[in-house]
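Here is one such protein, fold included:

. . .
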Amino acid sequence: MTDKYAQLVNHGLGRNVARKLGLPQPAALRRYQPGQPLITGPVLVQGSSAGADTLATELLSWDLDVRRHAVPREKLGAIILVLDEVERPEDLEKPILVAGASLRDLAPGGRVLTVSRPAPEADSPAAAAARQGVDGFLRSLAKELRAGATGNGILLAEGVQVTSPGALAAVRFFLSGRSAFVDGQFLKISSPAGELSHNPEQPLAGKVAVVTGAARGIGAQIARTLHRDGATVVLVDLPAAGEHLAAVANEVKGTALQLDITREDAGQRILEHAMQRHGRLNIVVHNAGITRDKLLANMDQSRWSSVININIVAQLRINEALLGSEHFRGAPRIVSVASTSGIAGNRGQTNYAASKGGVMGMVRASAPLLAAVGGSINAVAPGFIETEMTERIPFALREIARRANSLQQGGRPGDVAEAIAFLVSDAAAGINGEVLRVCGQNMVGA
């Protein structure tokens, strides 16, 4: 779906009028294209810890132009603040203000990253205060950035170093165009597990992935992105969507499975198809979902139960079958599509928000079960994404939803797919039980 407003206010007379009236002018985002540089321009690494030194050295090995001190009026591709050893709130002042002095030199589509540790794991009130201070700082800074630049944070659990595979994978993801619509978010690296791909362009080579709800929209784009990254894809959707499903399956050279995921044997059917056609199953993406919106006072049993059954009960049942099978072993990955509605709520969506909140609860509680078999489970929570469904929203409400984030625009299905492709990679093995919002930093919710 085209954002005609964004086109209007960024060209010619429309741009001049928008500037004079102070109207939002959404920037064109720097999105990933195969073969493009990870980031354009020097990367400034700020911080005095050993972690800052080792990260700078690692980034040099990626053939990036790394700075440890800012050069006045030099355009920067990214600013990384390594704050992994802060012990008191006062420790934040110097690195943050030094970095702040370079913000005017941040190029359009630039990136700001913080690398710190979770406040709940601090061993003193002062350390917890400093770590939580990073949270408030980063989320506020992300709302100040302009020209398509984004700000995000990486949290290192105790025992996880700056150069662990998961941390480096997160740095690469956030620096790249893959994270274009991820803004103002923190991602925790829970363990040092993981292995960086020797081929960043095809990190899923040799993997077999299942995507539910894959006939259209976000699901179809997830299938395309996983295929682009090297995976063999099994596409699952209802028999009624069979024609569209077959078309996408042919496009990505995968196989189609027509299946109602609410069936009691859906998990077993998925496993059997993957094993018979491809010999293994490594990745499952729970994308299938529906909305049946109604104010709660007018909600009937059919609307409530259909949303709950498809959006969360089916996932629980399928996951139970997967974890009970000897064929879903060897570092399996599960990613579920949640929603910001499950975080901040949405009028008329009590059923949908309950189901998507349920997805996030399931992911957090299932993390130890996946870790026990060397795997991981995470969720992505999209905000306003330009799809056929959002195109049906009344014009005024659609425009409000589009502009109600720091990037002042809707995301694309590919933005959700990029986050999922990152989370199912072996490099992200140390990320488990997390929810990553793909929402351009919505003005509501955390």
